[in-house]
Amino acid sequence: MPVSDKSIDERAFELSKLQLSSTDGVIELSSAQFDKFTSGRRRSYQLVVFLNARHLQDKPQLHLRELREDYGFMAKAHRDRFKGSESEGKLFFTEINFEKSTQDVFRRLNAQSLFIFRLPATLNVSPGENIKLKDQDMLKPETFAKSPIEVNDMVSFVREKTGIDIGKVDKPTIFQAWWFPFVALSFLSSILYIAYKVFYADFMKNMVFYALATLFVYWFSVSGGMHNIIRGMPMVTIDPNSKAPRYFMPGQGQLGTEGFVMGSLYTSVGLAFALVVYIAPKAKSASTQRIIAYFGLFTAFICVQQVIGVYTWKTGYHWRKYI
C-alpha cells in the first residue's frame, strides 16, 4: 500500500522528535520502528543506518566502540548544523543493535557483517521482505586499508551519497573539558613544589649523586639509547629457525640489548682506567696500589677484547697485533 504524503510528513516529524531526544543525534530503531520508517515506495527523508552489536564492542579488533563514537559525533554535528534550516528533516542517522528482536532486520538486509549503509528515499521497501542494497550505498570496514574507519571517511560517504555536507566534525578532547584548566593548574603547581623540594634536598649537595648521574648519561649515550628511541629498535628478535630470542644481530645493524651491552663495556673500560689513575695512587701501601692497578688494567683488557670479538663477529675483519 502506497504511503500518503501526510503519513510521510508524520514519520519525518516523529523521527525529528526522536533525533532531538537522543544525546548524540543517533536514533536507535527497533524492528517495528525500522518497518515503520522505511516501508513505502518513497520517503521525504534519507536514512543512514549503523548496524551495531553491543555484545561485540569489547572486542578490540572490531573497533566497534570507536566507530560508534565517531558515528555519534557525526550525527550530532549534522543535527546542530542544520537545526532550523530547510535541510532539517531530510536526513536521519539511526542504528540497529543486533538482538533477538532485531534479527529479522539483519536477515532482510542479508547482513553478514556489521557496516553502515544509506537507505535512499526512493528505494521501495516492503515490510518483511528482503532489502537489496547497492554496494555503493554501503560503507564497510574492508573498504579501507586502515582500520577503523575514521569520522572523516563517514562524512565523505554521507556527502557523496546524500549530497548533504556536514562539514568539519570536532571530536571532543580532554582539553575542552571544563575541569581541565583546574587539573592542569594543580598538576603544574605540584611539579613546581616537587622541583623546589628536590632542588634543596640534601642529596642534591652530594657529589656522588652528580658522579652517578654523569656516568648514566655517558653510558646511555655510548649505548645508542637515542638511536633506539628514534629508530624504534627492538631489544631482542626471535630467530626464525630455533624460535629462540636473539640479542645480537650479525652484520650491519644493532639491537637495543646489544647496544646497552657494548655501552656497558665502554663504560667499564673508562672506570677501569679511572681506578688506575685516581684510586690506586691513594692507597697507602705500594702492594695495594699494584693490586688495584693490575686489576684495573686486566678489567680494561678483558672489556676491550670482548668489544673486538663482537666487532670481528659482525664484520668478519680480524685485528692484527703488532709488537
Write the layout of secondary structure elements.
Blueprint: H1 5-21, E1 26-28, H2 31-38, E2 46-52, H3 64-82, E3 91-97, H4 103-108, E4 116-119, E5 138-139, H5 151-162, H6 180-199, H7 207-222, H8 225-231, E6 237-238, E7 245-246, H9 256-279, H10 286-315
Parallel strand pairs: 1-3, 2-3
Antiparallel strand pairs: 2-4, 4-5, 6-7
Task: Provide structural commentary.
- The protein is of the alpha/beta class and 323 residues long.
- The chain has helices at 5-21, 31-38, 64-82, 103-108, 151-162, 180-199, 207-222, 225-231, 256-279, 286-315, and strands spanning 26-28, 46-52, 91-97, 116-119, 138-139, 237-238, 245-246.
- Strands 1-3-2-4-5 form a 5-stranded mixed beta sheet, with helices on both faces. It has a two-stranded antiparallel ribbon with strand order 6-7.
- The termini are far apart.
- Mean pLDDT is 87; it is low at 1-8.
Core attributes:
alpha/beta; five-stranded mixed β-sheet; 10 helices
Main sheet: strand order: 1-3-2-4-5
Query: How many helices in DSSP terms?
Result: 10
Spatial shape: elongated
Question: How much of the polypeptide forms β-strand, as a percent range?
Answer: 5-15%
The overall pLDDT average reads 87
Instruction: Show unreliable segments.
Output: 1-8
Order of helices and strands: HEHEHEHEEHHHHEEHH
| Largest sheet descriptor | 5 strands, mixed
